[in-house]
User: Which sequence fits this backbone?
């Protein structure tokens, strides 16, 4: 994924795109894919009944990360307030999902990796909210 | 779409599901589909260059409505704070998209219908935020 | 959802839109939402371990139905061959998901309703493939 | 994105996951994100009226790639025939989108990069269809 080159060739992005938005778009894509895989791996575990909340949060997280990555990619008619609220919702579900996955990270490697992806995405959303002009 | 019957048969929904959540799920699905159609109709208009912001907001709105409808449907491991933030982001994009569509509702019937779908979805998100226990 | 009015106001749709495509778009939205709800209801059942395949097919079905409904909505630059293949994949997952849900329709009302939504969506995809000019 | 490690820790994946499926999942995520960015960059170009078909195919491609990557990630209740049809639809839209983007790759760097992402995803879908047991 070469988000930086894509944004550099976007007519509405003047000069070098913000590292924060580039990173956020890529972390959202990564986290969405990882959460889908974690949900499916949890579903296949013997102890699936104990992993219901993890599966549900994984699916919520994948859905918001997908939407947020798409919204963060749009500069042609961007609405800063909408992006800010999407980033806020995304950061919150990443935190919830990371906390849940961390509870069984010692037992399930997929939850350990997924928690890391959620933490990285959470940080990238927070940085995007802090750094982007007009987003606050 | 028979969301009420689906939720009544959900093991985690005790008794009759909240009308607010049922309506919100259905309005999100309706608004997402309408926004996808409005974006494509705008793209086909002669004056497409004047409709860039409308297309972009339509696509943002479709993506958040899809994610929010999915999150509102999940009760197996629900996280009220995540749902609340998703509803907030959804309400905001519905408001932005409705305002933009209303600017050319007199000229484009698809924008008039889309603005109505966005307003209905906005109201349903606000009602869901007001009525649901634990969402505030 | 007033798909017919939306398509009638679309600059690329000449005259009255095909009933088959209107119905297909609406059934895809309905089936996607119903499958998301069925997956979550299955996840909350005591016998979740026996419902793994149902949950997985529900999620697949929701994802393809969402994509297919969006593609069927786009007329601005439509590629008939792509739509045909999407409809084919959508019909197949609707059939698989309906068959799986029917296995426990007697036990779980959400699976009974979901099977019906999948069957209706399957029929609408088949009709769209049969009726649309240039789709074969 | 560490899809290989995620799949290695999935209870239903015996031993080392297929390189073809790992690559396909990652290319689908990459192509979906790139297509969303290309659609938005095209929308912001002065010559947007000439890029309608490109925007529409970009959006179709993003939607199928997202769905296909999710379906390819699910092994808990996998239906090989559904995955095969999704891969077929995905390969076809990637080919259409690549051909369209290549028409203006000399003028728009975002279209050049997007065409490459689509070609890579097309190859990964074809390899997944060829290599995976039970997929034919």
Assistant:
């Amino acid at each position: 994924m070469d988000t930086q080159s894509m944004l550099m060739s976007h007519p509405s992005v003047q000069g070098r795109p913000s590292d924060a938005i580039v990173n956020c778009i890529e972390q959202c894509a990564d986290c969405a894919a990882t959460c889908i895989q974690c949900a499916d791996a949890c579903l296949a575990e013997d102890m699936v009944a104990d992993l219901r909340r993890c599966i549900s949060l994984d699916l919520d997280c994948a859905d918001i990360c997908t939407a947020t990555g798409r919204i963060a990619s749009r500069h042609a008619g961007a609405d800063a307030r909408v992006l800010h609220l999407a980033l806020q919702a995304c950061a919150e579900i990443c935190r919830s999902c990371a906390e849940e996955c961390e509870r069984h990270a010692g037992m399930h490697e997929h939850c350990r990796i997924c928690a890391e992806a959620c933490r990285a995405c959470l940080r990238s959303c927070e940085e995007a909210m802090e750094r982007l002009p007009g987003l606050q």
About this structure: The interface with chain C takes residues 52-57, 59-60, 63-64, 66-67, 70-71, 74, 76-79, 81-82, 85-86, 88-89, 92-93, 96 of chain D (CB under 8 Å).
